[in-house]
Amino acid sequence: MASTSQLRQDLSQRQLSMIALGGVIGAGLFVGSGVVIARTGPASFLTYAICGVLIILVMRMLGEMATANPSTGSFADYATTALGGWAGFSVGWLYWYFWVIVVGFEAVAGGKVLNYWVHAPLWLLSLCLMLLMTATNLFSVSSFGEFEFWFAGIKVAAIVIFLGLGTAFVAGLWPGRHLDLSNMSAHGGFLPKGVGAVFAAVVVVIFSMVGAEVVTIAAAESRDPELAIARATRSVVARIVVFFVGSVLLLVLITPWNSLDPGASPYVAALKHIGLAGADQIMNAVVLTAVLSCLNSGLYTSSRMLFVLAGRHEAPAVLVRLSRRGVPAIAILCSSVVGFLCVLMAWLSPKTVFLFLLNSSGAVILFVYLLIALSQIVLRRRTPPQQLRVKMWLFPVLSILTAAGIVAVLVQMAFDDAARSQLWLSLLSWVVVLAVYAGMPRARRDSVARKQFSD
Fold first, then answer.
1. Residue 279 falls within a domain, yes or no?
2. Cross-referenced InterPro entries, in alphabetical order (predicted)?
3. What pTM did the predictor assign?
4. How confident is the model at residue 394 (pLDDT cuts 50, 70, 90)?
């Protein structure tokens, strides 16, 4: 085990570009969009547009801070500098907690997808996926980047092909077809569940877009992090508009919204409606790729956040040690073990412990996004103009509106029967993290704060 704690800058711009491009595309889009369409009707693409605007603004704020000061633990570092040690500690541990639960959840989801072809115990398939992605992350950061490059490439290709086929079908360029937009109003109208349903579904959609920010962490392990972050931040608008809003709009144009099964992928239904043979096999393979991509990114992101927390003396010091290949091996293994424990709970206690873990991390990412927004508002006033390669638009108005938008989503969760438990249990998770911070020796907290401010 190497003693140095300097991560290698082995990620290429090619890998980072594809991580940025495909990072937001996951099973939440390929499968979860069916739930959103069932709740909102043809207007569901408006829900994706609203959430997309929020994610774009958060990414712009994060991009501004990350280009001015690239850091592997960007969220935690910026929150500490702007708001204090409690905020950095909260961001670091909450973000780690969110992603290790995602790792366990995606491993279970991947096992279920594999069950489509391989008849074996779910826990065994999930374990195999965990071992595969853990080995990938342990080998080198470039192997993580290469796997993610191809995973993201398959997801992007699938969406692009669907957009091409769907547009041709709707526009009447398909054999035996003519321009047909009737599905937007023929089955109960454009807003069959009312305007309120468009905003109520925001809670579901926002979590399907999580992952855009991972590139700002990965960029610190590239040779030109400022360039990578600037590119990713500027391209996020096109990615959200095309991949999410565009594809969901095509889904409701191709198939009647009330004919979709919320538990199945609406993309399969749309491709079958178009007449593409073997659509279920193709989309199942794409969903598996999306799950593996998320699992791969989850292990990478959670291990890097543990590495940063250890470097800030807010986690055991052994986690900062690197292997001979330049990766934080112990941090990767610790995150992998927690992920596998989640898989174990999904097998032994799916309705209690596993459900509690999922709910207790559900709103955590919104707390992190809120602290990112508040950090940007504070740090913008402290940063020299020449360091701002990427600037938040219409500062401070849009920054304040972004923070208010995140709070509005949290308030919406409090009034949503399906999401209320996630909000309160996630708040409990934050309270536990703050209690641990308050219990840290005062001298350690002060030294961490002094180190961060001196940096």
1. yes
2. AA-permease/SLC12A_dom, Amino_acid_permease_CS
3. 0.88
4. very high
